Amino acid sequence: MFVPPEFVSMYLPAIYAGLIVGFIGTMAIAINRRELHILILTDIVGLAMIFVVSAVGTDLAEALILPGLVVELAETLAISEILITREMRKIEQDPRANLAKSSSIFPQAFSLDMEIMTTAPNFIALVLIGYGILLTGFTGGAVAGGGIVFYALSKKARGLPVLMLDGIAGVSGIAWCLWIIGFLLLFVIPQYWLLGLFLAACGLLLKVASKVGLIGLLMREDIDNE
Amino acid sequence: MPVISVPLFFYFGIVLAIVGSIATAWGPGVSDPVIRTFNTEVASIGVCLVLLCYNHTLALLTLIATTVIITLILFRAIIRLEEMGADV
């Protein structure tokens, strides 16, 4: 009733493809011994997850794929940090080894010196944040976060002091509270569904925007170090 | 009469995802983590095609964005671990 008829015939192939891809990924993980390779192979298992979820074929699938992808991203980030930290600790304990200067994503010094960085950051950041607030929800959060990242990057490129985003965890907590209250309202008093929807949307906006901004501020240390 | 055949894209995406995952798992030269990371891109392009057939626009955009970020994170980890002389 809710699934379009052409998606129904695509259900079984997608499920089988997901199972095959997941089997290949997990077998390779079982065979491999090195942690970094296992981390790369978990990416394949994540793709199998997307196959199985997308076979549902409705908006529900879309709503389930988004958090799955974001969680996978956070997982990869955390595990790679753990691997690096453990290796650093091993080197620190070995008195003969000398710890090399830490490197960044970019092999060479990466200085952002484009004209748009000096002429337009305020305007573009304002437009992006305003449009993101108008959109609300996940997409709005991503757009507004992009505005924050752009503003921080261009300020840094011009050598000006950048706003400090301290206490961002508090914003994140407030955003979760808004989201949960909105979700609860949908079930407890369904006639106020619009209020609940907007609470949830604004909570997600705050959450995603602050997270994207935070990632941008962290990456800023990698960019522009001469 | 649609010009683009959706099942063609769908099955091509499935084949690409399976071939890409096999290449990531046992393909040539995968003892090098950089090559292994590149091979995951093949599988993720296949998943992109499948999502395109299902009209999952937001999921497709998020998948592209997270694939790029995950590749950056993995490269950073590979570079740092190799610089520290770890067994990668």
Please give a structural write-up.
- The complex is a heterodimer of chains A (226) and B (88).
- By secondary structure, chain A is an all-alpha fold.
- Chain A contains nine helices and no strands.
- Chain A has helices at residues 5-8, 11-31, 35-54, 59-93, 115-119, 121-135, 137-157, 168-188, 193-220.
- In chain A, helix 2 packs antiparallel against helix 3, helix 3 (35-54) packs antiparallel against helix 4 (59-93) and helix 7 runs parallel beside helix 9 (193-220).
- Chain B is mostly helical and 88 residues long.
- Chain B has three helices and no strands.
- Chain B has helices spanning 6-26, 33-53, 57-83.
- The mean pLDDT of chain B is 88.
- The chains are: A mainly alpha (226), B mainly alpha (88).
Secondary structure elements and pairings:
The complex is a heterodimer of chains A (226) and B (88).
Chain A: H1 5-8, H2 11-31, H3 35-54, H4 59-93, H5 115-119, H6 121-135, H7 137-157, H8 168-188, H9 193-220
Helix pairs in contact in A: 2-3, 3-4, 6-7, 7-9, 8-9
Chain B: H1 6-26, H2 33-53, H3 57-83
Helix pairs in contact in B: 1-2, 2-3
Task: Give the assembly state of these chains.
Answer: heterodimer
Spans of at least 5 consecutive residues with low confidence of chain A: none
Which chains make the largest contact? Answer: A-B, 54 and 50 residues
Number of helices of chain B: 3
Order of helices and strands of chain B: HHH
Strand content of chain A: under 5%
> How confident is the prediction overall: mean pLDDT of chain A?
80
Number of strands of chain A: 0
Total DSSP E strands of chain B? 0
Largest sheet of chain B: none
Helix content of chain A: over 70%
Structural class of chain B: mainly alpha
Give the N-to-C terminal Cα separation of chain A.
60 Å
Order of helices and strands of chain A: HHHHHHHHH
